Amino acid sequence: MKYARIKTNKGTLEVELYEEDAPNTVKNFVKLIESGFYDGLKFHRVIKDFVVQGGCPKGTGTGGAGYQIKCELNGTLQFHDEGVLSMAHAGRDTGSSQFFICLSRKNTQHLDRNHTCFGKIVKGLELIDNIQQGDFMEKVTVFDK
């Protein structure tokens, strides 16, 4: 199984990636991690009880990796629970590098089968409520377990 380690200025998150449920999204995320794309990027959008969003190279929510990927919405893990990582997009099949971390199932249910869930925090979940807009990802790595 593949995992990602997201070292933030608030602590480290360990994420189990949904390789079987969202293989192309995970492949894209891993490719970006291995290129160092996420290192130093800010969390540009934080909405209490909703999401923490990052992955924009401009730090504004308007940038991406320069290409788009298709949504993967039919798997068994496509539910926006607390701690789930999901691809941000500007409409179906327009995801790229931006992703968000769900802070509350109550406020993210409407995203089910509309945004691709591709991982879930398995260590460090208690940190996500402390992340604020402008906090950043120091280093993001991928590993097998």
Describe the 3D structure.
The protein has one helix at residues 23-34, and strands spanning 2-8, 11-17, 43-47, 51-54, 84-87, 99-102, 117-123, 137-144. With 145 residues, it is mostly beta strands. The longest helix is centred in the first third of the chain and has 12 residues, at 23-34. The mean pLDDT is 97.
Largest sheet: 8 strands, antiparallel
- Average of per-residue pLDDT values: 97
Quantity of strands, as a count: 8
Radius of gyration: 13 Å
Uncertain residue segments: none
Number of spatially distinct domains: 1
Shape: globular
Second-tier CATH architecture: Beta Barrel
**Strand order across the largest sheet:** 3-4-6-5-7-2-1-8
The CATH homologous superfamily is called Cyclophilin-like
Q: N- to C-terminal separation?
A: 6 Å
Report strand %: 25-35%
